[in-house]
Amino acid sequence: MILDTSALIALAGGNDSVVASLATVVRPAIPVIALGEFSAVAAAMPHRRRHERWLRELMAVSDVLPIDATTAIHYARLQRQARDAVMSTVLWVAALGKQHKLPILSSDPDFDLLDGVRRIKFLPTEGFPFARGRRSRPREDRPDE
Fold this sequence. Notes:
CATH architecture: 3-Layer(aba) Sandwich
Structural class: mainly alpha
Helix content: 40-55%
CATH topology: Rossmann fold
Number of helices: 6
Radius of gyration: 15 Å
Largest sheet: 3 strands, parallel
CATH class: Alpha Beta
Number of strands: 5
Strand content: 5-15%
């Protein structure tokens, strides 16, 4: 199972549904893009060092998924399908999901717009930091959240 940035942040915050989703996962997969996004968010949070240490510990028991030429081919196909409806970071994570044939644990419904990408949904907890200000579309117009 791939953890996108929303799942990483929720897991770091102890989100019960994310913890439960990972109960049977032997070794989660983390895209390098999600590592970068989480690190940027963590740098702005209180207890930055604790979040950085937590991420290092998680990486030690996870597979970090790099982007390679095969990922780029999947990305190009997804980008043509999505046009401008989906952020490029979502497309890269989705491309890794297709490449590795893994579902993506995410609160982002944009993954549902992409053919052949399987999202495992969870609800972010109250005060979820990554959800603020990253969309032009109002939250009430986004189904399944």
